[in-house]
From TrEMBL:
Residues 25-184 form the HD domain. It holds the Pfam family HD. It comes from the Bacteria. It comes from Spirosoma flavum. InterPro entries: HD/PDEase_dom, HD_domain, HDIG_dom, OP_Dioxygenase. NCBIfam families: HDIG. This is HD domain-containing protein.
Length: 184
């Protein structure tokens, strides 16, 4: 059931533009998952990479608002909660729930990171709370998945290449299915 629900979300909205970028939601998800897989990431991390933006694909009635054409406000929390409710591991949920916090952290920690953000990422940063404060950054560094969250963020930023060949959705849905079977 979980995999079919995820497949349905991608069927309904996967061909939508990935906000402010020259690729679709599905292309972004596939590229991010491929980067995780190519890096030798574990199954939870590959699933999180594939589904990190699933909150953007959820029905509008679940959204708490929109970011002026740049997606759903709190998509990271909505997506993490959606997957928690379906029995995914806390690691999957934490990686997804914190990929926006990783952007906020990296902007706070590294001015060079801010300079590399795309126009769309800069726009969404305004809606996402801007750079972290010292206290927020210190607390964020204690997350047990801190390094994995930062790695997912790096893949998220890289996964925006028009026309890049990747495995298809069925391939990554099979990994999701294996992951869902493992946590049930």
């Amino acid at each position: 059931m979980t995999t079919s629900a995820i497949a349905k979300l991608f069927a309904q909205s996967g061909d939508d533009a990935y906000f402010g970028e020259p690729i679709t939601q599905l292309e972004h998800a596939l590229q991010c998952a491929q980067l995780a897989e190519n890096a030798g990431a574990d199954q939870d991390t590959i699933v999180a990479a594939f589904l990190h933006d699933i909150g953007h694909l959820l029905p509008p009635e679940l959204a708490g608002g929109y970011m002026d054409g740049y997606g759903t406000v709190d998509h990271e929390r909505l997506g993490a909660d959606f997957l928690r409710e379906r029995g995914f591991s806390e690691k999957v949920a934490q990686l997804i729930e914190n990929h926006v916090n990783a952007k906020r952290y990296l902007v706070f920690k590294n001015p060079g990171y801010f300079a590399r953000l795309s126009e769309a990422s800069l726009k969404t940063l305004e809606f996402q709370g801007g750079p972290m404060t010292v206290g927020e950054a210190t607390a964020f560094e204690t997350n047990p998945y801190f390094k994995g969250i930062l790695q997912l963020r790096a893949w998220d930023e890289q996964a925006k290449i028009p026309g890049l060949l990747t495995p298809d959705i069925a391939y990554y849905l099979s990994i999701v299915e294996r992951n869902a079977d493992r946590v049930d």
